[in-house]
Amino acid sequence: MGETLVRLEGAQELILQRLTGLGIYKTKSEAIRAGVLELGEKYNVLKSGKELEYELVALKMKKEAEEIKAGRKRCLTEAEVKKKYGFK
Fold first, then answer.
1. Residue 44 and residue 81: Cα distance in Å, rounded?
2. Taking the CA of residue 63 as centre, how many other CA atoms within 13 Å lie in the half-sphere pointing to its CB?
């Protein structure tokens, strides 16, 4: 997953300014994220909570594996994970 740069002007920009100005959303980014979720619901591409969670976890695991394979990240040992997160 990544970042997306969006340039808006005209009506879309005005709507975002009003949504944030009225305090409905704290930031324009927050309003845009909410809008994308609503579009997902409207067009029935938003899965159930558990299905969505599983898909997001799978995407994150795939990204992590690619970073480890490319040498940009290393895999922690079980002992390192326990120490880092305070497990016994």
1. 38
2. 8
| pLDDT digits 0-9 by tens, 12-66 | 999 999 999 999 999 999 999 999 988 988 898 877 778 888 888 999 999 999 9
Cβ atoms of residues 55 and 47 within 8 Å: yes
* Side-chain half-sphere CA neighbours of 81 within 13 A: 5
Q: What does the alpha-carbon distance between residue 50 and residue 56 come to, in Å, rounded to a whole number?
A: 10
CA 65 to chain centre: 18
Reference 55, options 71, 40, 69; nearest CA is 40
| Model confidence, pTM | 0.60
